[in-house]
Amino acid sequence: MTSPKADPGSFRDPSGRVHRAGDRIFRTIGAKAATDYEAARDSGVLRKYVDRNFLIDSWEIEAVGVDLADQSATHVVEHPKIPFVSYPYEWPFALLKEAALFHLDFQCELLDDGFVLADASAYNVQFDGARPLFIDLLSIKRYREGEYWLAHNQFCEQFLNPLLLRSCIGVPHNDWFRGRLEGIPSGALSQMLPAYRKLSFRMISHVVGPARLQARSERRHTASIVRRPLPRNAYRALLRHLRRWISSLQPARSDTQWQDYGQFHSYSQSEEQAKMEFVSQFVADAAPDVVWDMGCNTGAYSELALRAGAGKVIGFDYDHGALDRAVSRAKREKLDLLPLYFDAANPSPDQGWAQRERMGLTDRSNADTLIALAFIHHLAIGRNIPLDDAVDWLTGFAKRGLIEFVQKDDPTVQDMLALREDIFDQYDERAFLQALESSARVIATRRNPDNGRLLAVYERDH
Predict the structure, then answer these.
(1) pLDDT tens per residue across span 67-114
(2) Predicted TM-score (pTM) of this structure
(3) Domain for residue 124, yes or no?
(4) What does the H/E/C string look like for 243-299?
(5) Are 361 and 436 members of one domain?
(6) Whole-angstrom Cα distance, residue 321 to residue 291?
(7) Together in a domain, 243 and 277
(8) Percent with pLDDT over 90 in the chain
């Protein structure tokens, strides 16, 4: 077995670390966390929530059988590998809301069992399709009567405030959250909120009040706050109060540019059906474990890929309204589909401490198979990316794929060129095929007779 290496993103918890060895994932548990871990394990709490799909599975292994750098561990457990790690700044509003409600539900359930979560990091939640899963078992600790919810501020910054930013102001959280990995500060959000928004009990309790306390402590150079004991019923009431509020939140601006693209494109009904059959056959022939759907929109072709035999689909799109609809589709149809916010011209980089705490897109995983339908012109014309660069970049994600080329005279491209100069002399089908053939082998093509769009199947040797 490859010698395990400590995950660069797990250093913040001194009570244990995550280690990786190929596809195997280990977690060390130090003496500081051992008592809480053993209490949760021996009481059956860990197994209970694994069986209920709240908590990632784990099993203890002999530490001597694993060459870990952390020799102070009292226990070592192994976890199943998560197929694709995503981050809160990549989640659309609907997924962040789902994660927030899940966190609160898990807290309430644990409280009934005499346990709580030590922190409220959004990074402790991952998604299996559109279903949230808690991954940090060391966050589970015994509840002590009268204790205050110390992670309240962290929950607000990483869950509540990003949701309020979109719900109250109409601004998506993604770019801000990516720029500040700890979330959105209550003080900054409070300054942005209209005056009438600040007057509710909810806002005063969870945004405005905490922001004022934080500002006051910074002015006095002290963080001392006197807290009275919080009875268990009051603790539970606080969690449920937040849950009711968050469950009612909706995006302030729900209409976006591409969310209705599936109903308003240049395909006739018969050609749309023919395209779907071509895509479906391509996926069936490839039989992939993981498909990346670039420009997934509302997830229609992601669903088609799953129906054709794909094991899992990771969908990427820039349109917030379309992504929220894709999440609704995944939940409604119980699809193994994870729709993520994705700016293709500026994808998630390596960042955080030493630029290794949060991994960039290509360092986390690659796909078996790629689908990029009506996507590449958004790079080449929408963002001025050279066509050959865009093709080379796309084909690098998977050894096989299907890319749709949209001609310049297509109404969609003409709309993009309506308010700008056409400087794209090199954007044509011949240049596209040349670029594709320089990166891979073109296996099959299909042209739409209605609009001239070209579907091209490629394969790479390595």
Answers:
(1) 665 667 899 999 999 999 999 999 999 999 999 999 999 999 999 999
(2) 0.93
(3) yes
(4) HHHHHHCCCCCCCCCCCCCCCCCCCCHHHHHHHHHHHHHHHHHHCCCEEEEECCCCC
(5) yes
(6) 22
(7) no
(8) 79
